[in-house]
Write a structure and sequence with these properties.
Length: 495
């Protein structure tokens, strides 16, 4: 899609569709007031009919509106104006775009210059508009014989807000478009079935990104190389699978070579049966989403390369398939991690941490400024936060604060859980240095405690996205979270 800033009165904008905001109980925004005036009170008549009230997310499309150059007029409900905030704005934009994309309009103009956002800026609105447009246009088609129709709209413009610099708004649109594309990339990888999106497929996807951007160097380590690195913990997860495990390394250079990078780590279990500790059959198909952490890292890395962020960033993905077989790791087996620590595998379905711990150790070679791992790690995170918030655990307070703030700004929220020493004892083993599970309680915390043993040499945060990475039911599909959060965080870092 192409995005632009287009100034002019509502009645002078020549577009296939122009969108204006109506507040709850029929109160009109400035742009809607003008449209109402030139249309002989056309909007007011619709409101008096009771068909449209301005509830947040409500939409109504009017064809051939009187007094406007636009072929269509879209009324979008903004809810209560006094309560209008960033979250409301996102919902309003999503609803408006959905209505437009359901039509055959090619060019769309959002006349929203008068909107007042609490604690937010004009560039934020533009960024969010482009981001929402990209994600709303996503259609999954790869494994369908009958393809879903692509949206007609490909030209989106927005009114400039008084006093805002045009360049800043244009840059915001570019940023939002790049983030939306990164989210869609992550969603698509997550949505692919396990027989398509294998560890090798993820590696190939990363390689494509590396070829596209000169600032990105990609290398793929196979099992022989990982064996030489003594990554026994990661390899124990793939031991039962015919699919070869891959360590995907994506090195983005946006600053001087000697500038320490930030590192993103993604859990890439392309299908998780649970291994010998086999999962129940219900909803096991959704275990193709167990690589959504990896997908989000790949999506974020593509985005930062597109945005040309002036820092160095490394993306690491541990890609494996967890299958039961005669060669699979068994409960009670003891494996040795890259860090030299022995691990008693009490449950082979707690496999993500076995992958991540070796990748965390691999990250040490970069002497990183910060490390963030992203993983669909525990059902306990779903029980605690549902689908709205991702769990955050960290060994650094400033990193925690930064991620919470980026979560608020990107509307991709996280919330911290304690990483206290008292929980570490739950991982004690009679036969190894550490057990891979800590019992039935505090599952998200003990999983992070396990990872913290391998993250002692750098500032580290763990994002458990088990609840936020995908939707179930009729909305089944990957969400692309937390690409927006990661990009927001990285965009605020300095070389």
């Amino acid at each position: 899609m192409k995005y632009s800033i287009k100034a002019g009165a509502t009645d002078k904008i020549n577009s296939d569709c122009i969108a204006v905001v109506v507040w709850n109980k029929g109160s009109l925004s400035e742009e809607a007031q003008l449209a109402d005036k030139v249309s002989n009170k056309g909007i007011s008549k619709i409101i008096r009919s009771g068909d449209f009230t301005g509830l947040l997310g409500q939409t109504q499309l009017v064809y051939n509106p009187v007094g406007l150059k636009s072929k269509r007029l879209l009324l979008v409900g903004g809810g209560e104006s006094k309560k209008f905030d960033a979250s409301s704005a996102a919902k309003m934009l999503t609803a408006g775009l959905g209505a437009v994309f359901a039509s055959n309009a090619v060019s769309v103009h959002f006349a929203i210059a008068s909107l007042m956002l609490k604690d937010e800026t004009a560039p934020w609105i533009c960024k969010q508009l482009a981001q929402e447009a990209e994600t709303a246009s996503y259609r999954y088609n790869q494994t369908k014989s009958k393809k879903s129709k692509a949206v007609s709209a490909n030209l989106i413009s927005v009114s400039p807000i008084s006093g805002a610099r045009r360049k800043s708004l244009e840059q915001a649109l570019k940023s939002g478009s790049a983030i939306g594309s990164g989210i869609n990339r992550a969603r698509h990888l997550g949505n692919l079935p396990g027989n398509v999106c294998t560890p090798s497929y993820l590696a190939d996807e990363a390689a494509v990104i590396g070829k596209k951007y000169s600032s990105m160097k990609v290398k793929i380590l196979g099992e022989k190389q990982m064996n030489r690195l003594k990554m026994g913990s990661l390899l124990s997860v793939s031991a039962g699978s015919a699919e070869e495990a891959k360590l995907i390394v994506m090195e983005y250079k946006g600053a001087k070579t000697d500038s320490k990078p930030h590192v993103l780590i993604g859990k890439g279990v392309t299908f998780d049966t649970g291994g010998i500790s086999l999962k129940g059959g219900g909803a096991m198909d959704e275990m193709k989403f167990d690589m959504c952490g990896a997908a989000s890292v790949i999506g974020a890395m593509a985005t930062v390369a597109q945005l040309k962020l002036p820092i160095n960033i490394v993306g690491l993905v541990g890609a494996v398939e967890n299958m039961p077989s005669s060669t699979a790791t068994k409960p009670g087996d003891i494996v040795t991690s890259m860090a030299g620590k022995t691990i008693e595998v009490l449950n082979t379905d707690a496999e993500g941490r076995l992958v991540l711990c070796d990748v965390l150790t691999y990250a040490e070679r970069y002497n990183p400024r910060s490390v963030i791992d992203v993983a669909t790690l525990t059902g306990a995170a779903v029980a605690t936060f549902g689908s709205h918030v991702s769990a955050l655990l960290s060994n650094d307070d400033k990193l925690t604060e930064a991620l919470i703030e980026s979560g608020k700004n990107s509307l991709d929220r996280v919330w911290p859980l304690p990483l206290w020493e008292e929980y570490q004892g739950l991982l004690n083993s009679n036969f190894a240095d550490i057990a891979n599970i800590g019992g039935p309680r505090a599952g998200t915390i003990t999983a992070a405690c396990f990872l913290s043993r391998f993250a002692e040499k750098f500032k580290w945060a763990h994002l458990d996205i088990a609840g936020s990475a995908w939707h179930s039911g009729t909305r089944k599909g990957a969400t692309g979270r937390p690409v927006a959060l990661l990009v927001d965080y990285l965009s605020k870092q300095k070389a």
